[in-house]
Amino acid sequence: MVFTTLACAKINRRVALQRLLMACALCLLAGPAVSSGDFRVDDMTPRVEGGLLSINAQLSYRLSDKADQALSNGLPLMIRQTLRVERKRWWWFNAVVVTQQRDYRIQFHALSRRYVLTRVQTGASRSFRDRRALLSALGRVEDWPVMQASEAQALGPIQLRLTTRLARDTLPRALRMAAWLDADWQLRGGPLVKEVQP
Q1: 14-47 per-residue burial string, b: 16 or more CB within 10 A, e: under 16
Q2: pLDDT at 105
Q3: Residue 184: per-residue pLDDT
Q4: What distance in Å separates the CA atoms of residue 153 and residue 68, rounded to the nearest whole number?
Q5: Domain residues of the chain, as ranges?
Q6: 94: DSSP letter
Q7: What pLDDT is attached to residue 90?
Q8: Of 13, 72, 115, 160, which residue has the fewest beta carbons closer than 10 angstroms?
């Protein structure tokens, strides 16, 4: 009796391992998933004015078909822009000095037929007639304060790293798991890195 139980357990493990390997092979043969959306960080210009280091940047946003459909159906989407200041080190990875992020909520109001862009940290919002104008306004970053120029000088050569992405963790629970697996929800751009010699 014991022998037959052990033999069955070995056969079940072998079958499970074969099924797992077959599933992995199918995933590899399917190739990488391609999203129809695109987020890009096109340009970033650091500048010092009035004793403050700040940046201006240009980003491009194109939503995937699924994200666009969800937005049109009233689901608010969160776009996160992240700026990191790193101190260069020759002997190890760069040290992260400052990390700042800006969260923007974009949503469509069906009653007024307008798109609304809201900066989450301040609550300031603007409305637009169409999605293209909203995404264009979202892509213009002007006078983002980074740090005092004196602090930047004390650090020596630094790198500014700008990225942007769709914050999938803010989606409703029912959609969140599918969004982690579906390429149409994995929208990100960057990083664009600029070196600054204060």
Answers
A1: eeeeeeeeeeeeeeeeeeeeebebebbbeebebe
A2: 97
A3: 92
A4: 43
A5: 1-31, 32-196
A6: P
A7: 80
A8: 13
Integer CA distances (angstroms), 76 to 69, 71, 116, 169, in order: 11, 6, 9, 12
**Alpha carbon distance 119, 78 (integer Å):** 10
Tokens of 164: 């942007």
Q: Are 166 and 77 in contact (CB under 8 A)?
A: yes
Cis peptide before 191, with omega less than 30 degrees from 0?
Answer: yes
What pLDDT is attached to residue 35?
53
3-state secondary structure of 63: coil
- What is the C-alpha separation between 104 and 39, in angstroms, rounded? 14
For the beta sheet containing 38-49, the strands, ordered from the edge strand earlier in sequence to the opposite edge, are: 38-49, 52-62, 140-148
Amino acid letter, 137: A
